[in-house]
Write a structure and sequence with these properties.
- The structure holds two protein chains of two kinds.
- In chain A, β9 and β10 form a beta hairpin.
- In chain A, the strands form two sheets. In chain A, strands 2, 4, 5, 9, 10 and 11 form a six-stranded mixed sheet that branches. Chain A has a five-stranded antiparallel sheet with strand order 1-3-8-7-6, with no helix packed on it.
- Chain A is built from no helices and eleven strands.
- By secondary structure, chain A is an all-beta fold.
- Chain B is mainly β.
- The termini of chain B are far apart.
- Classes of the chains: A mainly beta, B mainly beta.
- Chains A and B meet through β4, β5 and β9 of A and β5 and β10 of B.
Chain lengths: 113, 114
């Protein structure tokens, strides 16, 4: 059974800091991995999706890496801003017709002005 | 334009009542989902429909019944509500069924059962 872990549960950093959010998963047989952002009352927004054959994906100040063999992914946020404050969730999906997204609990990030 | 919308946003009701949550997507997607995020923050899939047919039905009590009148809508009806049903329910959609298709989520419906 796939388990996704995100530690720590919460993180507070000063504005401008570069930071790394970690995600680990127990079953390396994944099809892809996705990072989401959750804002209160606004649902989930997909940030980056990495296919199992890829090592990283970049979008603006965000960079996500994937090490499938070790069951790890990191989300790197450069030059953090107060607007980055949100909960960041990692989710993995196996291959196969009936595969499902398995989510971590998320990391609640607070960027202090 | 809202891609995936849910109504209501908040729902407060008493134990034993029956309630429905509606979901609509205007993305032209064939697949829709219902997820539950409980108090421990875990987000888990409940149901998935593809072209109005049930694809995934997780271990969910029979009190929960999804209905898909057309590909753009997937409603969730809950009978005899219990305290443990309090959670945030998210609707999502994807272009088609399978791991290659990215899912787009709605804003969530916070259900509180008193």
């Amino acid at each position: 059974k796939q388990e996704v872990t995100q530690i720590p549960a919460a993180l507070s950093v000063p504005e401008g800091e570069n930071l790394v959010l970690n995600c680990s998963f127990t079953d390396s047989a994944i099809y892809n991995l996705q990072w989401f952002r959750q804002d209160p009352g606004k649902g989930l927004t997909s940030l980056l999706l990495i296919q199992s054959s890829q090592r990283e994906q970049t979008s603006g100040r965000l960079n996500a890496s994937l090490d499938k063999s070790s069951g790890r992914s990191t989300l790197y946020i450069a030059a953090s801003q107060p607007g980055d404050s949100a909960t960041y969730l990692c989710a993995v999906r196996r291959g196969g017709a009936n595969s499902k997204l398995t989510f971590g609990k998320g990391i609640t990030l607070s960027v202090r002005p | 334009d809202t891609a995936v919308s849910q109504t209501p946003k908040y729902l407060v009701t008493q134990m034993g009542n029956d309630k429905s949550i509606k979901c609509e997507q205007n993305l032209g997607h064939d697949t829709m989902y219902w997820y539950k995020q409980d108090s421990k923050k875990f987000l888990k899939i409940m149901f998935s429909y593809n072209n109005k047919e049930l694809i995934i039905n997780e271990t969910v009590p029979n009190r929960f019944s999804p209905k898909s009148p057309d590909k753009a809508h997937l409603n969730l009806h809950i009978n005899s509500l219990e305290l443990g049903d309090s959670a945030v329910y998210f609707c999502a959609s994807s272009q088609d069924w399978g791991p290659a298709y990215e899912q787009y989520f709605g804003p969530g419906t916070r259900l509180t059962v008193t």
